[in-house]
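The protein record passed on below.

***
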Amino acid sequence: MAKLLSKDFKKAVLLKIAPKVIYIAAKLLYFTCKKRFHGKVTDMQNPVIMAFWHGELLAVLLGYMSYGKIAKVDSVISGHNDGEIIARVISLFGGGTIRGSSTRGGVRVIKDSFKSLDLGRDLAITPDGPKGPRHSVADGIVLISKRKNVPIVVCNCKPTSYWQFNSWDKFIIPKPFCTLDFYVQEPFFLDDLSLKESKEFIKERLMQNAV
C-alpha cells in the first residue's frame, strides 16, 4: 500500500511540476534561437489540419506559437500519462487539446475533431502518434479531412543542432542558440485520392523537410 501511494504521489508531483518546467524551458529555448520561416500560415482564414511528425512535436509547437495562432488550435493528444503532460504544456501555451488516439477512444476523437472544426478551430495532428511506427500515417487524418472537406497543411521544423531521444519517434529537442527552420507547405485537399493514396501523399509531403 505504501509503495502504491508513493508511486501515485510521484506521478502527481510530476504532472504538477513537469509541464511548467517544460513550458518555461521551451520559451527560453525559443528566444535563444534564430528563426527562419519558409511558407505562410497567417493568410489562412478557414480551419485547417496541421500535420507534423510526432518526433518534431516540440519544435513545431514553437513555430506555431510564432505565427500567433496557438490560441485557436486543438491538438490531438494521447490519453496516456505522457500525453497528459503534453496536454498541460499546450494548455500553458494557450492551445486546446482533444484527448485520445486511433487505438484508444478513436470514435470520440473523430467526433470531437469535427466539433472543433465546426467552431472554426484548427486541428494539430501527428499522423504517426502516439505509438508509431515512426513516419507512418494513420487513417484518422484522412477521414477527418475528407469528411469535413478541410485542407491539410504540412509542417516541419529542422533545427541546425538538436538532441535526439532513443525513442520510437526519435523525439528531438533543439539546442539553445541554434537556427530553427520552420517549413509550412501550401494547403491541399484529398478529394480524388483513395485512402491508400492519401496516406502516401501525406507521408511524401511530410518527408520533404523531415529531420
